Amino acid sequence: MVFSVLFLVWEVGRIPCLLPLLWLQDVFSFAIILYELFTGRLIALRGDFMEGGPEAVTAYCQRRAGGERERIPAKWPDALRDLVYACWAQDPKRRPPFTSVLAQLRAMDEANLLDVMQARAVVDTGCGCTVM
Predict the structure, then answer these.
(1) Which of 43, 106, 113, 129 has the most CB atoms around it within 10 Å of its CB?
(2) Which DSSP state fits 90?
(3) Cβ atoms within 10 A of the Cβ of 94, count?
(4) In the chain, where the domains are located
């Protein structure tokens, strides 16, 4: 896995068309982090991962590659839910660029939606993680 990532980074220098796809992959990963912060649940610590070993992780990754995504709690504001789902679009080309993600997060912050979500995460899980 590390070799393939290093290979892609090296290839970006040779094949500039790979750079936009790498950024779009990062948007997907960033949305995973948002999900974990605002739910207070680390995906890597799921019970099936801890008990099922490498096969469970492989099965999880295959389901995600096939389009399955984490369920976002109904209590999340629509703007945040829509942003995370957009970042998780199956087709990487349909994912928003980071400039758009940042603009949307700033708008949510100005509307105090992120503070509300942070307070919910602390109450629901006891997690004191912060998004700044």
Answers:
(1) 113
(2) S
(3) 11
(4) 2-42+73-125
